[in-house]
Amino acid sequence: MINTLPPNISCNSCKNSEVVKDPVTASYICKNCGTVLQNKSIDFGREWRIFFEEENQRARTGAPITFALHDKGVSSEIVAYNNYTILQKRTKVLTSEERRLYHSFELLDRIASKYNLNKEVIETCAIIYRKTMKNNLIKGKSIKGTLGVALYFACKIHDIPMTIKEISSMLNVDKKEISKCYKFVLDILKEEKELINKIKINNPKIYIEEIVKALKLDYKIEKQALKILEEATKNGLCSGKSPKSLAAAAVYLACIMTNNKKTQKEIANFTQISEVTLRNRCKELIKGVDVEIIL
Which of 18, 169, 183, 265 holds its CA 20 to 30 A away from the CA of 272? Predict the structure, then answer.
C-alpha cells in the first residue's frame, strides 16, 4: 500500500503533525502519542500496476482471459488453507460440462509444460475443443481422443509439424482413439470455413527444417529443398500426397544436387516412410520440376 497521507492531517490530542500510516490496517497513527487518527482509510495511491519496463504500460486488470482454462481465468482464487482448496474446486466446477473442461484443460496444461508447446497453439486447441462441447455432441466421446484431434488441427493451423502418432504418444493414448474422433471434430468445424481451409492444406515445407536439422545437413540443402517444393506446388504436384513424403523427397533431391551424400534409407527411416515411397515421390518431383537427376 502507498504511504500517501491526506492533506492537513494532524493529531487531535497533542496537535503533532508527524503522522505515520500502518500499511496492514490502513490506519493513520500519531508518531508522538500513538493515537489512531483514522481507521481503514482510503488509499490515495495509484490504482494501476506496471508489468513492463515502460512507464506508459499500465494495467488496471488482472491476468488476461484465456480459453485454455475451463472458466477462462475470470474466477477468484482462494488461498490454500485447510479444506478451502477442495471447496474452491467444487464451487468452480459445478456442471458435467465444466468438469470435462476442467480435466481436459488440466491435461492440456501438463502437455504444454512438458513438451514446451506454443501458447498460440494451446489457445487454438482450446477454442476448437470448446466448439465440440456445444449441444452435448461430445457425450460418449473420449476426452483424450477429442483433445488429440483438436491439438492436431491447432498444429496444422499454425504450421507446426506434428503427426497424430506423435500426439498420441504425448497424450499416452492409442492412435486409433484419436482417429475415431477425427471425423467427429471435422464435422463440427465444417461451418468454420477459414479453419477448415487451413486444416486441409498440406504444407510439406514445414517438415523441411526438421529433417535437415535431424540429419545434420547444410542450410544450402534446406534452401534448395524449399525451391523444389515451391515449383512442385505451382505445378500442382503436392495435392493428394503425404506432405512428409514430399518433404523427404525434396531433401533427398537437394542432397544429390548439392553433392551431399545421404542415403535413401537414412531419410526414409527418419521420416518413417518406405524407401519405395521416397523413390516414387522423387520421380514425381523430377518430372514436375524439370530437373535431370539419376536416382
Answer: 183
Q: Which tens digits make up the pLDDT trace of 73-131?
A: 666 555 555 555 555 555 555 677 778 888 888 899 999 888 888 888 999 999 888 88
Instruction: Please report, as a single letter, which amino acid is at residue 167.
Output: I
Q: Are 10 and 19 in contact (CB under 8 A)?
A: yes
Q: Which three cell numbers stand for residue 27?
A: 490506519
Integer Cα distance of 29 and 15 in angstroms: 12
Burial 160-189 (b: 16+ CB within 10 A, else e): ebbebeebbebbebebebbeebbeebeebb
- Domains present along the chain, CATH in parentheses: 1-62 (2.20.25.10), 96-200 (1.10.472.10), 204-289 (1.10.472.10)
**Count of residues making up the chain:** 295
CA distance to 12, 13, 33, 36, 148, per residue, from 18 (Å): 12, 12, 10, 12, 65
Rounded to two decimals, what is the model's pTM? Answer: 0.62
pLDDT tens figures, 203-246: 888 889 889 998 888 888 999 899 888 888 888 777 777 888 98
Segments in the chain forming alpha helices (H): 84-92, 96-115, 119-132, 143-157, 164-171, 175-188, 193-200, 208-214, 219-234, 243-257, 264-271, 275-289
Look up residue 64 and give its three cell numbers: 488476461
How would you class 202 by CB atoms within 10 Å of its CB: exposed for 0-12, middle for 13-18, buried for 19 or more? middle
One-letter amino acid identity for 179?
Answer: S
Helix (H, G, I), strand (E, B) or coil at 263: coil
Interatomic CA distance for residues 249 and 238, integer angstroms = 12
